[in-house]
């Protein structure tokens, strides 16, 4: 029997060998990764945009007119009171006859300068020009920026030119002879006892029937001229016409006549009114309407109307 040789290692050597094996079997730990450096978020760039103010299209500096920096206003000639007032000297500035638009006195003149002021034009920036009434609303180029001469709005005229919102709504009035008793009437109630006349089919006739409602049947005529003759002959006590016609009758058609008074004007959509006339598609139309709206809102138009078409024109408004 073969004997195996057994080598016995010394204990110190064995311990050393075990330690070496243990060291070889233990893995080397992976290096701890270095944390990435903290990067600050970028500061946002805030851009403040200041909006460019929108130019006012009705500012004088951007308005398009016949002459830069000027506002040319046309009207008829002679310039009749109370729409245009004669100067204190009695002699109007050439070429004007009777009234003088340049002095700013009278209903139309005062209204024209008030509109001009709202548009930024001083009185010295306003230029007046003579244009016959009928030529103001015919088609074609105009020698004016604005035209004021008691031009009533009609749809036919508005096809040819621009016509502003109303600046005066036409009132009806009573005309009589100064010697007639009706001349002292102050109210609608005072009028009921008298006999009236008017042109057939007019607003004036409707006023007699629906506003005055007199006790005597009204007379109707084919024309105002016929009604005036009836008044002269004392066939009627009073003649009802619109206020502009009343001014014309008492100033040139009927001697010793008087405007007894006027009725409050209607202001509905279909009520007769005066408009500022401008060329068709005028760049001023919107601005003129804005100016008129402002003059109504601040009561300037009411004041002008009362001063020139009631108080100074001796055409008081009838009470009830």
Architecture overview:
- The protein is α/β, with parallel strands linked by helices and 320 residues long.
- It has two domains: 71-169 and 271-311, Periplasmic binding protein-like II (D-Maltodextrin-Binding Protein, domain 2, 3-Layer(aba) Sandwich), CATH 3.40.190; 172-262, Periplasmic binding protein-like II (D-Maltodextrin-Binding Protein, domain 2, 3-Layer(aba) Sandwich), CATH 3.40.190.10.
- It contains nine helices and twelve strands.
- It has helices at 11-25, 107-118, 155-160, 188-191, 203-212, 224-232, 243-253, 285-297, 300-311; strands at residues 71-75, 126-130, 146-147, 162-163, 168-169, 172-177, 196-199, 219-221, 238-242, 257-262, 273-274, 277-278.
- It has a five-stranded mixed sheet with strand order 8-7-9-6-10.
- It is elongated.
- The termini are far apart.
- Mean pLDDT is 88; it is low at 1-26.
Question: Layout of SSEs?
Answer:
Blueprint: H1 11-25, E1 71-75, H2 107-118, E2 126-130, E3 146-147, H3 155-160, E4 162-163, E5 168-169, E6 172-177, H4 188-191, E7 196-199, H5 203-212, E8 219-221, H6 224-232, E9 238-242, H7 243-253, E10 257-262, E11 273-274, E12 277-278, H8 285-297, H9 300-311
Parallel strand pairs: 1-2, 1-3, 7-8, 7-9
Antiparallel strand pairs: 4-12, 5-11, 6-9, 6-10
Record field, number of beta strands: 12
CATH superfamily (homologous) name of the largest domain? Periplasmic binding protein-like II
Instruction: Please state the CA-atom Rg, rounded to the nearest Å.
Output: 45 Å
Low-confidence stretches: 1-26
- Please give the order of strands in the largest beta sheet: 8-7-9-6-10
- Strand content is 5-15%
Helical content stands at 25-40%
- CATH C-level of the largest domain: Alpha Beta
CATH architecture of the largest domain: 3-Layer(aba) Sandwich
Helices and strands, in order, run as: HEHEEHEEEHEHEHEHEEEHH
Structural class: alpha/beta
Tally of separate helices: 9
What global shape is seen?
Answer: elongated
Q: Major β-sheet, in short?
A: 5 strands, mixed
CATH fold topology of the largest domain: D-Maltodextrin-Binding Protein, domain 2
- Average pLDDT confidence is 88
């Amino acid at each position: 029997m073969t004997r195996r040789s057994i080598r016995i290692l010394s204990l110190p050597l064995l311990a050393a060998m075990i330690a070496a094996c243990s060291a070889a079997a233990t893995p080397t730990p992976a290096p701890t990764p270095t944390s990435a450096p903290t990067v600050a978020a970028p500061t946002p760039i805030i851009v403040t945009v200041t909006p460019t103010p929108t130019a006012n299209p009705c500012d004088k500096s951007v308005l398009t007119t016949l002459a830069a920096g000027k506002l040319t206003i046309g009207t008829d000639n002679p310039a009749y009171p109370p729409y245009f007032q004669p100067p204190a000297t009695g002699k109007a500035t050439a070429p004007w006859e009777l009234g003088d638009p340049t002095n700013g006195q009278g209903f139309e003149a005062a209204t024209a300068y008030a509109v001009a002021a709202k548009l930024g034009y001083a009185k010295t920036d306003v230029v007046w020009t003579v244009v016959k009434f009928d030529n103001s609303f015919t088609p074609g180029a105009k020698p004016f920026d604005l035209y004021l001469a008691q031009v009533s709005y009609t749809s036919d005229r508005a096809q040819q030119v621009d016509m502003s919102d109303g600046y005066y709504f036409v009132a009806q009035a009573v005309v009589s002879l100064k010697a007639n008793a009706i001349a002292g009437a102050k109210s609608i109630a005072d009028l009921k006892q008298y006999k009236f006349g008017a042109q057939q089919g007019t607003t004036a006739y409707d006023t007699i029937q629906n506003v005055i409602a007199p006790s005597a049947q009204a007379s109707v005529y084919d024309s105002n001229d016929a009604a005036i003759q009836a008044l002269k002959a004392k066939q009627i006590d009073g003649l009802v016409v619109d206020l502009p016609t009343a001014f014309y009758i008492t100033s040139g058609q009927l001697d010793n006549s008087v405007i007894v008074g006027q009725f409050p004007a209607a202001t509905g959509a279909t009520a007769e009114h005066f408009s500022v006339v401008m060329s068709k598609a005028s760049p001023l139309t919107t601005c003129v309407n804005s100016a008129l709206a402002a003059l109504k809102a601040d009561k300037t138009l009411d004041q002008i109307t009362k001063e020139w078409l009631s108080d100074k024109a001796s055409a008081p408004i009838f009470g009830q």
